[in-house]
Design brief:
Blueprint (H helix, E strand, L loop, with lengths): L7 H12 L6 E7 L2 E8 L23 H14 L3 H7 L3 E3 L2 E3 L13
Antiparallel strand pairs: 1-2, 3-4
């Protein structure tokens, strides 16, 4: 397992997100190749029905995750220097209002992190 970090600032962000109503509940995990660095949650599992707190073991319905999974896979390929695979794979990318219908080099994509 990787070394742990002081997650008190992350806890505060999660708690504020629930407290302000931005999200009903949230769980977060940060990890690197050596293991989990942080894990935490905020809010209750079922609003109005349970006082059970959300943890990283709480199961959530996952909807519309395709973009997230593809983005993570693309970034992993960039980390490994395998951008040629991405150039071959990206066929349609919307840049602003313009829809590009040919392969786009990863260096031409704007990624906001």
């Amino acid at each position: 397992m990787g070394s742990r970090i002081d997650g008190s600032a992350i806890d505060k962000v999660l708690e504020e997100a629930v407290g302000t109503g931005a999200v009903p509940h949230v769980a977060a995990i940060a990890a690197d190749r050596d293991g989990v660095l942080y894990e935490g949650g905020a809010g209750v599992r079922i609003m109005g029905e349970s006082d059970d707190p959300v943890t990283t073991a709480t199961q959530f319905r996952i909807m519309s995750m395709t973009k997230t999974v593809c983005a993570a896979a693309a970034l992993q390929q960039v980390e490994r220097g395998e951008t040629a695979k991405i150039r071959k794979t990206v066929a349609r990318v919307r840049l602003g209002q313009e829809l590009l219908c040919s392969s786009v080099p990863i260096s031409d994509l704007e990624i906001d992190l």
